[in-house]
Design goal:
It is a single chain. Strand 14 and strand 15 form a beta hairpin. This protein has two domains: 184 residues, Hexapeptide repeat proteins (UDP N-Acetylglucosamine Acyltransferase, domain 1), CATH 2.160.10; 32 residues. The chain has 238 residues and is α/β, with parallel strands linked by helices. The N and C termini lie far apart (68 Å). It has five helices and 15 strands. Helix 3 packs antiparallel against helix 4. A six-stranded mixed sheet has the order 3-6-9-12-14-15. A five-stranded parallel sheet has the order 1-4-7-10-13.
């Protein structure tokens, strides 16, 4: 791909996935969108790094981090249509491999888990979206079309077309259907830990009711009395 074609592809990726570009010109995007700037800088650094040119690739990466807040190792492999939205705090390690049309939000880390040599960073396949603050650690594979929820910590492989939330990350379904596109509703993702707690709480209440029935009591002594007027000093100092 020519230089102009590559620049155009990254501008098109920004326009397709960031509503803030609606009234922005190509010049504005290139001059003020840090995600676009970081990826274009990485393209140069990566090519120089593959040619074993010393110092310069890392200098480009260092300056890019200082300007954009995005750190991409020159050795990382990134496909076409890659877009970083906002971008501050994004870290992409040396052996990370990113496919086509992948979207990252701010604070994402594609990192390693130790000091081992060789492949030690994630492989992210095509059409993956990774939410704000998510941490993907180790030589795991994130399957095609997967979604990673905000602040998830993922240390195991992610199946294709699944959505992962939590710490550690758990594959879940969103309302019984596969999420589509980078604009998935991140606010209403299911919480498997909360669901488990609710299930246990309901089971405990059921057992308490059975024990009360067998013992002839009206109900468990620990029932919540419900809301009522508070007495004593207010915790707010009133």
């Amino acid at each position: 791909m020519t230089v102009s074609g590559e620049i155009g592809a990254h501008v098109a990726a920004a326009r397709g996935r960031d509503p803030a570009t609606a009234n922005a010109s190509t010049v504005e995007i290139l001059a003020t969108w840090p995600g676009v700037q970081a990826v274009l800088a990485h393209r140069i650094a990566h090519r120089l790094h593959r040619q074993s040119i010393p110092l310069v690739p890392f200098a480009i990466s260092y300056l890019c981090r200082a300007v954009t807040g995005i750190e991409i190792h020159p050795g990382a492999t990134i496909g076409s249509g890659f877009f970083i939205d906002h971008g501050s705090g994004v870290v992409i390690g040396e052996t990370a491999e990113i496919g086509d049309d992948v979207t990252l939000y701010q604070g994402v880390t594609l990192g390693g888990t130790g000091f081992q040599a060789g492949k030690r960073h994630p492989t992210v396949e095509d059409n993956v979206t990774i939410g704000s603050g998510a941490k993907l650690l180790g030589p795991i594979t994130v399957g095609h079309g997967a979604k990673i929820g905000a602040n998830s910590v993922v240390v195991e492989d992610v199946p294709a077309c699944s959505t992962v939330v939590g710490n550690p990350g758990h594959p879940v379904k969103v309302e019984g259907r596969r999420p589509e596109g980078p604009d998935t509703d991140w606010i209403h993702l299911p919480d498997p830990v909360q669901d488990a707690v609710k299930s246990l709480s309901a089971r405990i209440k059921e057992l308490e009711a059975q024990v009360a029935e067998l013992s002839g009591n009206d109900g468990p002594a620990g029932d919540d009395p419900g809301p009522g007027p508070r007495r004593g000093r207010s915790s707010a100092g009133g």
